[in-house]
Amino acid sequence: MCLNNYTTEIKKSEDGKQKNIRLSYEERVIIELLYKKGLGPTAIGKELDRDKSVVSRELKRHKEIRYIDKKGYYIERYMAASAQGGYTYNKKKAGRIAAVKKDNRLKTFIETKVKENSWSPEEIAGYIKRNNMQFALRPSFQEIYYWIEHKQLNISSLDLTHKAKLKKRIRTNKDIKEQAPSRKHKSIHLRPEIINGNKEFGHWELDCVEGAKTTKTTYMTLLERKTKKYIVIPMKNHSSDSVKNAIDGLEKKYKETFSKIFKTMTTDNGREFINYELLEKSIYSEEKRIQIYYTDPYSSWQKGMNENCNGILRRFIPKGTNLTNIREYKLDTILYKINNKPRKILGFQAADVLFQLEINDIIKAV
Fold this sequence. Notes:
Layout: H1 25-36, H2 41-48, H3 52-62, E1 64-68, E2 73-77, H4 80-93, H5 104-115, H6 121-130, H7 141-149, H8 173-177, H9 193-196, E3 203-210, E4 218-224, E5 230-235, H10 240-254, H11 258-261, E6 264-267, H12 276-280, E7 291-294, H13 304-316, H14 328-339, H15 351-365
Parallel strand pairs: 3-6, 6-7
Antiparallel strand pairs: 1-2, 3-4, 4-5
């Protein structure tokens, strides 16, 4: 900026000193003009009624060195516009750095667990604490929520399992007619009280997850109440025969230990579970292999742990997905992620680990 004279008024307080601590653009214009005339920090400071150290720091920060090709030497210059731009840029960058940004490992760990594994902030914080993971800091789940809300992590609220809102299903008369009649002698209210405490191994909640309406493939899902182990078995269709075949497959897999691993199953009154006599009967003898119990009609909360895991499954396989296209390795990967989540109810341990410990004890006792 080429100005031969400067008449910019510098605002001062009543005692004659500068009002503002920071240099204004007008002051930088004056510095440029006086510096071109060869004045140093002391002389410029007197003209601005500033301490010489203020001018000296300003020149040190924003002074440019330029090489003159024709003359073959370097010159130093100070440009008010350039200095003002540098100051504005630095001011935007200034301020406290978010704690999570100080440790990129922690930031990556949180983002991966939420977006790829559907962990909640509480599960992440609990897992870090339980395993004494070494990061720059050990965050609480409240801090992780704060970082998400203030966009300090590459996570949106929709990435959180319990943030996404599902449309409430409106039950029609058709739905009601298709419900199987409740079996009072197999009611959940007649189930042994010990099951409610989740202290004894071998009691499961049973349900089905349907895919696209244009296909028949369905998943049978089971959840063990003590360890929270979650099992998903693909079925050809949503029928009682398919459910029986799925349970038969479990009996063939575990053989003589089946009745120790699967003591009871609690399910709803859907027609696919109507033939409880067949579900209870062993394929190897006339004896019962398991006890079936039914929840009250329209009371999904009575098998809420299974419903919760079904919701997590839907995060990986959205409603309406053609389940026929889900390959076995992909389903196995999803189940691995679900069963290795650090569950708060398990003291931030994984269901897979606790389930395997129970299986090992059963095998030793056989």
